[in-house]
Every structure is written in C-alpha cells, then in structure tokens.
Amino acid sequence: MTQIQLQQLQKQLWNIANTLRGKMGADEFRDYILGFIFFKYLSEKAVNFANELLDGENPSQSPLNEGEAFF
Predict the structure, then answer these.
(1) Average pLDDT, stretch 3-22?
(2) What is the pTM of this model?
(3) How far is residue 37's CA from residue 40's CA, in Å, rounded to a whole number?
(4) Residue 64, exposed/middle/buried by CB under 10 A (0-12, 13-18, 19+)?
C-alpha cells in the first residue's frame, strides 16, 4: 500500500469508529472496544487449545475454525 492509501484507510477507520460510537464518549467507547478485542483473543486461544486437544483423536474430524459454533 502506498502512503496515500494508508492515510485514506486510517481516515476511513476513524470515520467508522466515530459513527459507531455515536454520542458515546471516546473513553467509554474505548472500554467497549478493548473488551471486544480481549474476547476475540480469548476465543482464538480457546480454538487453538481445542485443536491441540483434538489433534490425533479422530482423523476424520477437521480442525475447528474460528467461525464455527461449538454447539
């Protein structure tokens, strides 16, 4: 990506973030977003852990994908 494209992307991301937060304060919005990022991190760790546990258990089973539901 060129420097101009990166700047346009950054500007668009800020506009999206501002639209999403609406009238909510930036500090309160940050707390929500950090919570979502942490939840995503935990979800990825759980999927990786489950795949490690299932490794070699049953060759017909495919590894878990992040988008799949556990139920």
Answers:
(1) 90
(2) 0.49
(3) 5
(4) middle
Size (the chain), residues:
71
Q: Torsion angle, CA of 32/34/35/40, rounded to 10 degrees? A: 130
Q: Taking the CA atoms of the chain, what radius of gyration do you get in angstroms? A: 19
CA torsion through residues 20, 17, 5, 39, sign? negative
SS3 2: coil
Q: What is the mean pLDDT of residues 35-60?
A: 85
Spatial contact of 50 and 64, defined as CB atoms under 8 Å apart: yes
Rounded distance, CA 55 to CA 62, Å? 9
Between the CA of residue 24 and those of 11, 13, 27, 66, what are the distances in Å?
Answer: 20, 17, 8, 30
